[in-house]
């Protein structure tokens, strides 16, 4: 069964730039991004993206050196979240445009 949140997650995926390389089996991660999109809209931040990714990593039972607060990450690691911020912002704009009478 596909829900409205699946549709939002798929929209965000479709808005990713070609150079973005999300990990495999990311359906749950993109559902978290869909939640961010609905909760924060265009105000979503790289720290929000990182927090969602951290929750997803915990749910998946995975370990990673970047599993620490966003502010503790080096600049290069922080910048890895930017394509996802931009994808969510693009998706927000698409939703605004498609719902405008």
UniProtKB/TrEMBL annotation:
Pfam families named in the record: DUF7701
Matches recorded under InterPro entries: DUF7701
All residue ranges annotated as the DUF7701 domain in the record: 3-92
Protein name, entry field: DUF7701 domain-containing protein
Source taxon at top rank: Bacteria
Organism classification: Bacteria, Bacillati, Actinomycetota, Actinomycetes, Kitasatosporales
């Amino acid at each position: 069964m596909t829900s409205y949140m699946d549709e939002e997650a798929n929209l965000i995926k479709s808005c990713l730039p070609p150079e973005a390389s999300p990990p495999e089996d990311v359906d749950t991660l993109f559902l978290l991004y869909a939640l961010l999109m609905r909760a924060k809209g265009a105000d979503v931040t790289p720290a929000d993206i990182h927090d969602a990714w951290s929750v997803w990593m915990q749910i998946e039972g995975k370990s990673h050196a970047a599993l620490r607060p966003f502010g503790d990450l080096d600049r290069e690691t922080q910048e890895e979240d930017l394509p996802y911020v931009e994808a969510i912002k693009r998706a927000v704009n698409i939703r605004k445009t498609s719902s405008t009478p």
